[in-house]
Amino acid sequence: MGKNSKKLKQKIKRNARISRYVIYKETLIDGREQFWSFIGSFVGIGLIALSQSFSMSQLENIFLIGSFGASSVLIYGAIQSPLAQPRNLIGGHLVSAIVGVTVFKVVPDILWITAPLAVASSIVAMQITKTMHPPGGATALIAVTGTAKIKELGYLYVLSPVLTGVIILFITALIFNNLTQYRSYPTNTRLTRIFKLRKQSTKPSRET
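The structure assignment produced for this chain is given below.
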């Protein structure tokens, strides 16, 4: 009992230190951070809206961007957050989309049952798969409350628009979050180092 209590206290202290660090980092955001957050999110959401406008009506686009808009806050505005990393971004949306469609297909279409069940189940699924991404709850909810066009997609909803939209957001984040020395995305991964090295290698040499 004593060991468990000690571990719990250590975990609480560690989480408190992490929270203080994240809050401290948020206070350091300056004009450069705000500029790149704006550009990245503008381009990412703009590309999704443009691509989806060819296959869906404006109404469906609004519903889908609501989910991706929440992701943009994380991957462009809080890029150091664990919840903004690629595994969470991509995995969270895909897992939640699968859960949402499954709930819609298996559970009777009763809104007060399907809506909370889709969201609650997606949270647990993301916890199990270690892909926690808050906007994933919205992705699951859209699968059961979206328009008839979205519901007709079935599991194709997972591939498009969810996967295609997430890939667009991710690639855009990978580009715009690494354009300057002040931003690095993803955090502490080989992918970022490779991206940075390639960028540096393309710079012209100053040697004569």
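Interim note for the steering committee: The mean pLDDT is 81. The two ends are 70 Å apart (CA to CA).
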